[in-house]
Amino acid sequence: MKRPFVFINMAMTADGKIASTNRKVTTFGSRSDHQRLLELRAQADAILTGAGTLNAQPDITLGPAPKQKSAPARVIVSGSGQVNAQHTIFRTPGAPVIVLTCERILARRLKELKQAADAVYVCGANNVDFEAAFEFLREHHGVKRVLCEGGGRLNDSLLRAGVVDEVNLTICPLILGGQDAPTIADGIGFGQLDDAAQFKLHTRKQVADEIFLTYRAVRNSQHA
User: Fold this and answer.
1) HEC string of the chain?
2) Does position 75 have pLDDT exceeding 90, yes or no?
3) pTM over cut 0.85
């Protein structure tokens, strides 16, 4: 396997939303959910997030779990490079901050991000080539396991690229509703049921009113 093992972790409402329509509600999991997040981070060599998720949370640093021996690399994905170069993450000491982008990024933004980040990797013409990007992370940064923490558009891109090996979901006892509220996999999606990413339930655990689910990809099960 040339690329790293890729696993997603998301908390969602019972109707599949990860934030409210105005995207101001972004955290609704319990302490148990937060502890699970830290446990999954402790298994990762890199934490992946999309530019939209990063820009919507100005204080996020993608820091490691407590007592974690080595901090995972912090990786931001943005095909257009619309990342706030003044974001807190670029000013927080710790693991390297890496930006993955593609050739459609404006030269001005590319220059800004190269000054802000520890590394910027351009791969793909109109969209980020995740196979190439993850091979780059493995070869140049020793990344063997990548944890993706959203948002929905990034998850959708990863699923359509066929690079997701595992999905971890926390189902919270809430209903947010709203057709414009983001879900765990927004974006283009799959046009036909036969094309959908296939997963198999691996583990299930209930803590109080939350349910923690882990799914393993059927097509990539040999890497699990």
Assistant:
1) CCCCEEEEEEEEECCCECCCCCCCCCCCCCHHHHHHHHHHHCCCCEEEEEHHHHHHCCCCCCCCCCCCCCCCEEEEECCCCCCCCCCHHHHCCCCCEEEEECCCCCHHHHHHHHHHCCEEEECCCCCCCHHHHHHHHHHHHCCCEEEECCCHHHHHHHHHHCCCCEEEEEEECCCCCCCCCCECCCCCCCCCHHHCCCEEEEEEEEECCEEEEEEEECCCHHHC
2) yes
3) yes
